Amino acid sequence: MAEAATIARPYAKAAFMSARDAKALPAWSEALREGSGLVADPRIADLITNPKMSVDQVVSMFAGLAGADAPGDFDAHWQNFVRLLATNKRLDVLPDITAQYEMLRAQYENELDVQVTSAAAMSDEQKSKLNAALKTRFKRDVRMTTTIDPTLLGGAVIRAGDLVIDGSINGRLQRMATELGS
Fold this sequence. Notes:
This protein has 182 residues and is of the alpha+beta class. The protein has 8 helices and 4 strands; from the N terminus they run H-H-H-H-H-H-E-H-E-E-E-H.
């Protein structure tokens, strides 16, 4: 069977193009996140895979996920999208579709999500300097989220898409051990 990311790619592109053309990027993001949450729930997953559940019933369950502030014909487009996924028995890849959609959206909006994990809390000044440095490095606006992991001993690990910059003490010790051949 094909990998979920491969299956999700054309659906994510279709959702993105529909959202972009309708100027409904945030509404699609919200609906995709909510839909991903639904399919992640084992009770809902059992329902949507139940052969007694019709496609129309599945679409009804997913209808209205983005809320009342969605623009124009969003609800009709969203229901058509869910109908397509349900008909093709692809609702289970909705989390992968969501992840790929968000990457397309960030690229379109020239933004990059960066996760910084540090050994200790960073000051606002440190966050600001790091954000500016990352913005310069990636030539994109950076949306930075930070977490604390005291097991790092010191330093930080920065994740931006597929790129990982490991500036932690743990990472340095592991690299030294590898170089020394132990």
